[in-house]
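Issue: copy button drops trailing tokens. Both records pasted manually instead:
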Amino acid sequence: MVSLVVAVAVRVVKNHQVKGKKEETENFLNVIPPITIQSNDCVTLYSLSGLVSSNASVSPTSSPTSATKNKKMTAMEIAQQVLQHQKQLKRDERRVLVAASVCYSRAIGVFTTLLHEKKEEEELEKQEEEGNENNASSKEEGNSATKKQSVEEAILSLLRQRLGDACNEIGKILLTEVKNILSSTNNNNNSATITTNNAYQQLNDKGEDITKASAPLLLSAEFWFTHGLKCFDVCHDLRNIALLRCNLCQCCKIRANANVALPKKGGGGATTHGRGESSSSTITSTTTTANSNNAATNTAVGHAEACLQEAADHLLLAHEALGQRDSDPMTWDMVSEELAATFLVLGVRRRQSLLGGGATPVVVQALRLTPGKERSVVNPMERAMEIYTTLGNAHQAAAAHYQLALFYSRVWTCQRDESKTREKLSAAFRHYGAAQVYFSAAMHGNEPTLVILSLDLSNLYSAVSGETECVAKALSCCLDTREAFSLDAVKAACERHYVKNGPSSMPWKNGDDWFEKMSTLASTIEDRVFKLLLSLVKIEKEERSKQQQQSSSLTKSDISSSSGSSNGGEKYKDLYRFALAEKMSRKMSNNEDNLSSSNSPVSFTFPVHSLLTALWENNRKV
């Protein structure tokens, strides 16, 4: 059926092109411009690559002058090479889809033209028959005309749906190629590594930067998705409208996160501020250079946020198209999941751009955020958390709690009054607690996240106050990570490793990501525990000295009770001695790493587990 429609469309188009191309084009433009016109003749039956790009949209290196001068291939030429070296089936599939889309587009234009002409003729006939007295025959003719019109509209809607499907598939093929190129890129030197792809191999041998191809490929994917979206929008195919919006969202995310040579999108006051600094003509050349670098950084940040905001807008429009969840629950939930992820990434990006990385609280009042900037960070994260909670995705909801906790733990120190300080600090503890509850209950596979979260919470307790209560809670946070280093956690990690790499592999020696992270965190936790114990010992010593100074003014009974409490003040000193003895015994037995030639999980343990467990039990007894 499809092949027949395409064949007929090609024949009709050829006949109409001979009669009058200009009139046909004007009629096309009344609804949706055909692909050939929209692509500026980049896509025709004689050009089936699917690439659509303008010289102004691609990086400057794609201009003919620079290409001739440097004898380097342009971005478009590299993209053409990549597509030409696809596997035969993939290449043929793409070309057939492009040819089908061109034919469908022309068939829609011709069909629309014929309908318009027919409609004009019917209107003229209707005007002539208005004075006719035979009303019964007029009604019968009107009913038959209505039925015929509904059939014609159904055919036109079918053609548009077929065109939308073809455009979507072409866009997905090009977007997949972009992802393959970016995933094969080495982050150290920003050049593509040699892979099994023949095009990548040849271009790498020629010294070409394969990442240049990502720009025209991504622009072309966006073109096809956008054209498909117009087709589905005209025929009111709500499900496909939502899916096309999701694909456009993926394009925006790639623009935000990847090094694609495309014009930067503006967004945010930081970008404007950076540009203003770099454009000043009254400062010295040294300052100009520094400010130009700062402007480039701010522009990149604004570009990423603008792309992520555009991605979120696409998903919100997808929800708007669907109307409500009951119309298509599966598609609605898929869009919601993607929207929540986009909001969460957007909030984290804004937090990092405003406060920088790390978890150290901001203490400079000049860096205090305005209420508007604070809402720009909190609102996306809270919306993400609400969506994940509604979807029942507890893991991602906990991740959103964690990101909100990181934000509040950084801004509570630079509020305008005490009430705001308490509010932000309380929010930080609340979100930390919610995240910790989940990751403690669903620990397997999430051990690194639990340990890092506990370290951040421990640091927050230490930053709040240097008194015994807060420092003791900071120590308790570290001791609560003991099960993350347990033998059960090691066995579970080994099982996951064996599934991927086979039972003969030793994960602690073969660079397993989980074991590398946990080994680093084990050392960090141990250092943190000793530091906190030493602080508690000093606090105990200071408290005992104060008690001794006050004992001279007490009665004999008060002195005896004071001496009893003083003896109880040796708690953390005893724990510190115990921890030192445990560490020395490990060094004496040369069991610091505890590696074995056996690949059994029982042969590997984290020494810090026994230390944390022993300290936790002793701390609970005292």
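Record 2 (pasted manually too):
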Amino acid sequence: AQAILFARVCAVAPRSSMPPRANVAAPYASVFIVVTAVARVAAFQPKDSAHCLQWRSAKQGGKSTALRAEGLHGEPSADDPTLCRLRTRLGPGAISTRAGEEQMQRSGYANTCTTDDRPEAVIGEDSRHLAVGIVGGIAVNSTVSLGAISCRPIANSCSQGCHEAEFAAVRQGSDELEFAVLDPTCDVWWREVSSDVIPPIPELALPLGISPKGYKLGLCRTFGHQPGVDGSHRIVGTFVMEGPDFGQCFFTRHDGSKGQLNGGNFHILQARAAEPSCQEDARLAADLRDGLAKRVEVFLSEDDRALIERPSGTLFAELFAQVLALGSCMLKQVMSPARFVPSPLNSLGLHLLRALLAERMGDARARAAGFDTDPDFIAWRRDGFLMKDYDAIGDQGLHRLLQIASAEPVEAIPVPPYKWASRNVTVTAGPDPQNDMHIDTFASIVKVWLFDQSVSPEEGPLEYVPGSHRETEQRLRWMFAYSLPPAREALVEPSFRLMGSESVAHAAKDFVEDCLARSRPMLPLPGVRRTLVIADTSGLHRRARGTAGHTRLSWRLAGDNDGGLRRLDPYRWPLDLEGRMASPARSQPKEEL
């Protein structure tokens, strides 16, 4: 299985491709429209893998099956919940699950699970629990005969003894009760999410349905070890993947009280499907080759090409000739935002080509938008982060900084007023994956935090290596070592870890040591009530270890925004403020780490 594969189970199907920019100027319009459309559709859209999880009754071969979990809190337990659902949709006057799916398909969605329409299933500001249940034993106080099994909706709880209105009980073997059945060609699992790390791998997150307002919903599961959170039980809830409740896990405790976790400290259901055989398309391949060749011609100077050659030891012309010889299936991946593309060509420098081209095109977009001479952009380009007094600049100041950081005047830039969501992180004595220095991906990503004056080294502040977001020769050598086939570490975790393996740490020893020496904590500005931090997390960063028991108070921009700004196609063509194709300067300043 390849870590770049996208998966969707019982999932929302994209309605249509995102339209290309209509105002791209000739003569390149026919080339760049094709590439842009392909890349933007691929940007963190799960692939259609509805076959991975199916609902079947016992007569159809369905049975209660537990899903595996990974991470520090993924050890098997008798408390592990298993999934079920009823064919009749929950709620007064509700339509059946089958009819609901047919209705959703007519609306442009496929294989979509329905929501629970009962009043107790309302969650957050604008969401509902999915109409999914947990397999239980024989119901207490039930008039259903022995041999019945309960499928308790996740919106309900019944540990103290259930009344019939609080659960659905049917005879085992009935067509009414269905179980989640996994396709043997897929991997479906509970992915552990550390505090404030939503979304962990957005292309693998598993949408199971949609809210009444059209927001994607998935499933989450508590760790089952926190008495004050989940009563030391693993509880399945609904994970909101879009909209105002984005990043929150809503669940019902065994005592009937409602709980929620925001931004992490729970599992989410993810899936990875075997790649369906891709049909090569000669015409599409020609368009992709033309688009890539034009981008390389315009944006990569001779110095840039030499920069790729030195770590890889391969002439750029040899690398590029082999890239252009790829078919449409691989070229679509190369020109996508996928964090890592497994390929034998990585031994020639393919990953370096993708990273440096994305950076140079980002620089060109900043110039085209007129941001390149702004002092804040100069600092952003040099350091990879900005720190400001939020009370002094306000929402309008933040809006301007988001435009500068993303080099986009309008696209994907939220407009004021801004709403913030609390994302507090408590330091634990055990290991935290976020303590490892890492990058989120190969291309620029904008993330945003607010910290108050309570954050100190004991609270585990954000740490960042200034300038590590730029593609210097030292960083390229490190990425080259990480991407070399078989690239086992990159396949498991495409967010490259600074010391992901001994071989990588040895191959780029100077870079690793320099980054560890220069990493600095993002502590609040002196005398400032609320410190705004904007960081490019394609640079090396981590959560400092802190002191167990201390809690870092922080706030993130509310909504489905990847923790800051929504990720876009890194190879989108730069346009000026009037929508015309920009002419980038060929010379590039030399990068020094």
